[in-house]
Amino acid sequence: MTSPPTLARSLGLADAAFIGLGSMIGAGVFAVWAPAAQAAGAGLLIGLGIAAFIAYCNATASAQLAAVHPTSGGTYSYGRAELGQWWGFIAGWCFVIGKLASCAAMALVFAAYAAPPGWERPIAVAAVAALAIVNLFGVTRTAQLIRVIVVMVLLGLAVVVAAGVSVPSHPIAASTLFEGGAFGILQAAGLLFFAFAGYARIATMGEEVRDPSRTIPRAIVIALATTIVIYAVVAVIAITTLGPALATSAAPLADVVAAAGWSWAQPVVRVAAAAASLGALLALIAGIGRTGLAMAREGDMPRYFAAVHPRWRVPYRAEIAIAVIVIATVCLADVRGAIGFSSFGVLLYYLIANLAAYRQHGTARRYPRALQVIGAIGCLVLAFALPWQSVVAGAALVVLGIAVRALRLRRQRAH
Description:
- By secondary structure, the protein is mainly α.
- Helix content is 73%, strand content 0%.
- The protein is built from 17 helices and no strands.
- It has helices spanning 13-24, 28-31, 33-40, 44-68, 75-82, 85-114, 120-136, 139-165, 181-193, 200-203, 212-242, 252-259, 266-297, 316-330, 335-359, 369-385, 388-414.
- The relative contact order is 0.22.
């Protein structure tokens, strides 16, 4: 009897790091500044620092876990191995629902920059369908396309920074950093966390990375450190160039270029924003597909989705289902609501990653346990500091998933 096809180990360190960069330096850098500024004003800079540090704590937990459990599924697999099946299920469920919302947000941001007025949703649907097809033809093609997109995005951000430096700035007074209050700063941090969460995509691809015990931890740290530096520079430029107007800007980085009088550069920024959205969407579909594959293998999703294509070596049924759900969400979604909802689900996902990493000991330990304690507490605080609508909707779906699994297990025991 022949064994079922498995995923191909075709990704090196550069490939994995670029996938992380493509996931983090995505539409968030073009879309998240305005809602963060509404919550905290200039205090979003403090929120950015908080979000970055919590992301670092989470990244060390993910890297430590991935080195010992080099398999697809990310924290779903880690939670099962270190904490038990229920913890793994909750992590996987939070990841899937949060990242499906992220996919819809990425598609809508892409369309906002690339589509003519009135055509935003049809163009968003077309983008989801096209990138799902790209993923179906193999992860190596996915990594190659993400490299191109990341380079385009970095060039666009370089133009934004150059434009911002060329005009008189609004100085940031120390007193304005705290105008939004502690809660506003935490809410901004929770919203900004949305833009940092892409490093998990590296860990979810553990079966496709060469030498995963070395490659995954290094790729996560490289991608996260690079992203933190880029976001800090862009945040300072946006605040000092636009001042209070940042909170009401629909396209803040395009407005930075406009404020400098660089009208020729606005198409460059729009192309970069569209490319960033596509890069994040492409990596998100791949990441959710791998988590869905892992959950289906364990029976936490229908085993129908555990199939791997014999030629292209991808979880094709899971990825097709993801594309269908995201397309349906795009037809109904709101970008800002999707950002908050996604952050809630992903923060709970990383809460479990920190708890799982805390349980590791001996040679498995790579980082101090204090980082996992801080990461876990930080995830909880930021999750419940998000807009109440996101918290209520996210909590309701988490409870629904738990209830459905409990009912399924009860029926299995009855038979």
